[in-house]
Amino acid sequence: MRLPALVFGAAAVLACGGAAPDRGERAGPASGAGSAEGGSAGPEGGSTASGDTVSVYLTEYAIGIPETLPSRGTVLRVLNEGAEIHNLRFRTAAGEFVWSLDQEMSPGDTGVYEVELAPGEYTVICDFAGHDSRGMRTTVTVEAVPDG
Predict the structure, then answer these.
(1) In the chain, what percentage of residues exceed pLDDT 90?
(2) Residue 12: predicted pLDDT
(3) What Cα–Cα distance (Å) separates residue 32 from each residue in 35, 50, 78, 90, 138?
(4) Which of 77, 110, 134, 138 is spaced 20 to 30 A from 42 at the CA atom?
(5) How far apart are CA 106 and CA 81, in angstroms?
(6) Total structural domains within the chain
(7) What residue numbers bound the domain in which 119 lies?
(8) Which residues contact 148 (CB under 8 A, 6 or more apart)?
(9) What's the predicted TM-score (pTM) here?
(10) For the domain that residue 8 is a member of, what is the CATH number?
(11) CA 64, CA 33: separation in Å to the nearest integer?
């Protein structure tokens, strides 16, 4: 079963971590997304009215995501390239989860999500079946971006 492309507006950050070998530097176009914040990702991907599109790769047992993200609206294109089910969750240094996928992603699933990220440092994890303790954990810094 394929996870439909969903869009979430959130006033914080995401989750599912673990340092992937390439930290998500692979550029991939976003496909078909809407936006709760007024922007959308077109078929070509790239920047949207509310921010940038960032690809996030989930595999055994790593998360490929850039080390820094902008604080403005960001569109996450999450791809489960692994052979197992994964999820994605962001939490603050205080341990509060501020954004999570609404359900697990099966192998091959892709989802597009819009998030608003507050400046700061977040732990990104996949905690499905103890994957975080097997390496699916990383740290992401969200940098303030001036309006304009």
Answers:
(1) 53
(2) 31
(3) 10, 15, 13, 23, 27
(4) 138
(5) 9
(6) 1
(7) 1-148
(8) none
(9) 0.66
(10) 2.60.40.420
(11) 20
